[in-house]
């Protein structure tokens, strides 16, 4: 579940980079995200929610560090347009297994597991 766009703010709630845009894919934001994540601007611009580019999304997400193990899975729900996976804190690595099983069932593409 995710909104169609994001607005970034600083810690004092002023618009980040003084951008009054509702488009999270502004060139300024994308450039900074590219530097911070190592993911190319072209890849960031091309990412869309749903079952397209599953392996690429999983590969990019595999470098994330989260406080709780299950947060790695739950943070991906919007990327895959998943709304039916229950969020159970304390699920640990099972959460990612459940998410992958759901994506595999929906896509029918076992190659997604080779990321």
Explain this structure.
The protein has 115 residues and is an all-alpha fold. The protein is built from 5 helices and no strands. The longest helix has 14 residues, at 94-107.
Instruction: Name the helicity range.
Output: 25-40%
Q: What order do the SSEs take from the amino end to the carboxyl end, as H and E? A: HHHHH
Radius of gyration from the alpha-carbon trace, in angstroms = 15 Å
> Strand content of the residues, in percent?
under 5%
Count of distinct strands: 0
Query: What is the 3D shape?
Result: globular
Count of DSSP-assigned helices = 5
Largest sheet: none
Structural class: mainly alpha
How far is the first residue's CA from the last residue's CA? 23 Å
Average residue pLDDT: 81
Query: Which residues form runs of ≥5 with pLDDT under 50?
Result: none
Keywords for this structure?
115 residues; mainly alpha; 5 helices
SSE inventory with pairings:
Blueprint: H1 27-37, H2 41-46, H3 54-61, H4 69-74, H5 94-107
Sum this structure up briefly.
This protein has helices at residues 27-37, 41-46, 54-61, 69-74, 94-107.
């Amino acid at each position: 579940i995710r909104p169609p766009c994001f607005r970034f703010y600083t810690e004092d709630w002023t618009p980040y980079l003084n951008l009054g845009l509702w488009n999270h894919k502004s060139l300024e934001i994308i450039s900074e995200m590219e530097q911070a994540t190592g993911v190319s601007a072209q890849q960031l611009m091309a990412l869309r929610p749903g079952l397209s580019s599953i392996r690429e999304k999983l590969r990019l997400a595999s470098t994330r560090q989260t406080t709780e193990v299950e947060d790695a899975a739950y943070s991906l729900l919007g990327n895959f347009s998943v709304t039916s996976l229950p969020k159970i804190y304390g699920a640990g690595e099972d959460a990612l297994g459940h998410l992958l099983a759901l994506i595999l069932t929906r896509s029918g593409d076992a190659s997604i597991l080779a990321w």
